[in-house]
Design a protein that fits this description.
single chain; mainly alpha
Length: 127
């Protein structure tokens, strides 16, 4: 083979067109998905994170109340079974994870240069 045949060039042209069309379909789908992220998911995550903030406030209030209660007790009480139970209870509340969830960024898909790469290949050897 000295160069691409006419049929090879036709196939290449068809494949380039198919790649470009499919890439356009990917762009359309991404636009639709990203619109849904903005419209539905972002507000839902925001509402969830507000609830997480409320849980964090409750956690901090409970831990503070336990601290206040145990601070008024004697050293003997705090070192005893009851004091240990309250410390364990407080520790469980302190360990409540109140980390907000991340907002999802728009989805982007790169690496769709196949049509350009295929189109840029030579059709015959160069000197």
């Amino acid at each position: 083979m000295k160069k691409l045949t006419k049929r090879d060039e036709e196939r290449r042209t068809e494949i380039i067109a198919a790649l470009e069309s499919a890439s356009s379909d990917v762009d359309t789908a991404l636009d639709e998905i990203n619109a849904l992220i903005d419209e539905k998911l972002a507000p839902a995550i925001e509402a969830y994170n507000e609830a997480v903030t409320s849980a964090e406030g409750l956690r901090d209030d409970i831990v503070s109340a336990i601290d206040e209660y145990t601070a008024g007790r004697s050293d003997k009480w705090r070192d005893g079974d009851k004091g240990t139970a309250f410390e364990n209870w407080k520790s469980e509340w302190e360990n409540l994870d109140c980390t907000a969830i991340d907002v999802v960024a728009k989805i982007e898909i790169g690496g769709r240069d196949h049509a350009n790469d295929l189109d840029g290949l030579p059709t015959e050897p160069t000197d």
